[in-house]
Design brief:
The protein has about 270 residues and is α+β, with helices and mostly antiparallel strands. The protein is built from six helices and ten strands; from the N terminus they run ααβαββαββαββββαβ. The protein has two domains: about 50 residues; about 150 residues, no CATH class. It has a six-stranded mixed barrel. α3 crosses α6.
Length: about 270
C-alpha cells in the first residue's frame, strides 16, 4: 500500500505529460466529460423536480397528466384538446402546452437560450399561480393576433436582469419576435419541467393552421373537487371513442392513461 502512494506523484506527472502532448485527445475528453456532467445534471434536475420534490404548485394532487399506452406523455392535436374541453365535466380546466427552446434578445444583453413553453394562458389560473412581478398570461393574450407577450422565470430575471423590477413592460425579442415582458414568476416555479420562459399557446408558429392529425401538444388537467381520477378516465374514454367515429380519417380511439401529474402511472382507461 505504501508503494502505491509513493508511485502516485510519478503517475500523475506521466498522465499530465500525455495529456499535454496529445492536446486534441485532451480537448475531446474534456468535451465528452462536460457533456456527460451536463446531461446528468439535467436528468437529476428533472427527477428532483418532478419525482422527489413534487409538482411545484399548490394542491398538486388535483392535477393529472395525459399519457399514452407506454406511459409516455400523450401527443395531442389542438383540435382534440378543444373538443375534450367542450365535452367533459370531470375537469375544472384543461391546458395544452409544448416545450421549446427560446432565445431571448434585447438591447444591452447578448442573446441567451433558455428552456421555454408555449402554454394555454388558462394554465396559470388552473395552477393557482401568482407572479412575483407584473401579471401572468391572460385569456386575451392567448388569441390569434394578440400582441406578443412573455412571462419570465425567476432564474432568467435574476441572472439576466440582475433582479431589476423595471423589466416588466420591457420590449424583448423571443426567437426573433418582438414581445413585451408582462410578468416574472416566483422562485422555484418551473413548469411543466424546468422551463424558464412562457408565451401564450396562440404564439406557437403554425398553430392556427394545424390540422386535426397534427399531434404536437401535451395536455394536463385539474380535476374538479369531488371527482375521482377513475371517473375522469371513463369520461375521456367515451369522448375519444366518439371523436374516433366522427373523424375516422384522423382519429383513432387510443387507450389514454390519466394519472397524477407527478405520480406513478396506474391503469389505462
Amino acid at each position: 500500500m505504501a508503494r502505491v502512494f509513493d508511485d502516485l506523484p510519478r503517475d500523475v506527472r506521466f498522465a499530465a505529460r500525455l495529456l499535454i502532448k496529445d492536446r486534441w485527445f485532451t480537448a475531446a475528453a474534456v468535451f465528452a466529460l462536460s457533456l456527460g456532467i451536463a446531461a446528468n445534471s439535467t436528468v437529476y434536475t428533472v427527477i428532483n423536480t418532478m419525482m422527489l420534490r413534487g409538482l411545484p404548485v399548490a394542491h398538486p394532487d388535483r392535477f393529472v397528466a395525459f399519457l399514452d399506452e407506454t406511459r409516455a406523455p400523450l401527443a395531442v392535436s389542438y383540435r382534440d384538446v378543444e373538443d375534450w374541453r367542450a365535452a367533459t365535466a370531470s375537469f375544472s380546466g384543461l391546458a395544452a402546452y409544448t416545450q421549446a427552446a427560446m432565445i431571448i434578445d434585447d438591447e444591452g444583453h447578448v442573446p441567451e437560450q433558455f428552456g421555454g413553453a408555449y402554454i394555454a394562458a388558462r394554465a396559470f389560473q388552473l395552477l393557482d399561480e401568482q407572479p412575483l412581478l407584473g401579471r401572468v398570461l391572460q385569456p386575451q393574450d392567448d388569441r390569434r393576433g394578440a400582441p406578443a407577450v412573455v412571462v419570465l422565470g425567476y432564474r432568467v430575471w435574476k441572472s439576466r436582469y440582475d433582479s431589476d423590477a423595471t423589466v416588466v413592460g420591457r420590449a424583448v425579442r423571443i426567437n426573433g419576435v418582438p414581445s413585451t415582458v408582462v410578468g416574472v414568476m416566483r422562485e422555484g416555479f418551473r413548469f411543466p419541467l424546468i422551463e424558464d420562459i412562457w408565451q401564450p399557446l396562440a404564439a406557437l408558429p403554425g398553430l392556427a393552421t394545424e390540422t386535426r392529425d397534427a399531434r404536437t401538444l401535451r395536455v394536463f388537467g385539474r380535476l374538479r373537487d369531488g371527482v375521482s381520477i377513475g371517473s375522469a378516465r371513463a369520461e375521456i374514454a367515451a369522448v375519444t371513442q366518439r371523436l374516433a367515429r366522427e373523424y375516422a380519417d384522423t382519429n383513432t380511439a387510443p387507450r389514454i392513461v390519466i394519472d397524477p401529474f407527478t405520480g406513478t402511472p396506474r391503469h389505462p382507461v
